[in-house]
Amino acid sequence: MYAFAVEAFGEPPALRELPVPEPGPGEVLIKVRAASVNPIDWKVAAGELARPGATFAFPLVLGFDVAGQVAAAGDGAPFEVGAEVFGMRRPATIAEHPYGSYAPYMTASIETAALAERPEDLGPVPAAALPMTGGTALALTRWLDPREGESLLVVGAAGGVGSYVVQLAASRGARVIAVAAGQDHDYVRGLGAAEVIDYRTADVAEAVRAGHPGGVDAALDLVDGRDLVAGRIAPLLRDGGRLASTLFAADPDAVAARGVRAVNFNYDATVSDMEELARLVTSGRLRVPETTTYPFSAMGEVYADSTAGHVRGKLTVTTEE
């Protein structure tokens, strides 16, 4: 099979011919139907997630989100052959388990992946677009806890996580202020944003202050580094507000004096989150963001698009042998 993998950290990933992995005890072999692309992929390739002292097995196949069919199962595996599953590989296990979803086949266990059965009315491509960004959005929304009538500022609202958070917060009755490029304004409004700010043409901080002079109740920054979060986003919060960053850019100690709670968020996937996402989508209460799908043979192009940033919604690939 051909898999999109790296031979060493810092080297560009490429399609490489590798043997089909065999499932061990407690593992399933998944015939991959679809996978989605996330920024964590290129961070893995660069070695940014490598723990000091950890020994990695190479080639390391990239890819976390997956939807596919169980093709084989080892003793004690959590699913039977033929089961349709979806979910995500656990980032903490990549050193010991180098089999990602950018391949026709991957192995997984309950230790290395959060997997759930895929409902019949949830197709493989939308299922593959759910796990990492949707699960992160679920957990972030729980922590930020936007309530009816409250204001939530989302910086990076048109991306994968942002697209889900906007919907989840709006469904709770919160007033979502979406920061996104101008061409994405109709898109984020369609997801439930009540206000939009074009970061390319407007001063985000000034625009927020003009509309919310008393400060916003909560803010989620999905794109900025520590200096911008500290200097431009955190001051927009009212005393007692909530702030979350997915790029470890928040400084909880710096805002504590104003009663602001801040968190640097790292998502730990669970099976229950996967099941909840499936229920939300199949019931119509949550929709999968705009998804652009490519054949697996174009994996290099998709990866380049992801590393360039400014992706609207999700990028997915459908795999083939």
TrEMBL record:
SUPFAM superfamilies per record: GroES-like (SSF50129), NAD(P)-binding Rossmann-fold domains (SSF51735)
A Pfam family reported for this protein in Swiss-Prot or TrEMBL: ADH_N
Domain of life: Bacteria
Membrane-spanning ranges: none
Domain Enoyl reductase (ER): from-to ranges: 10-317
InterPro entries the record matches: ADH-like_N, Chloroplast_QOR, ER, GroES-like_sf, NAD(P)-bd_dom_sf
Protein name per the record: NADPH:quinone reductase
Species of origin: Streptomyces cirratus
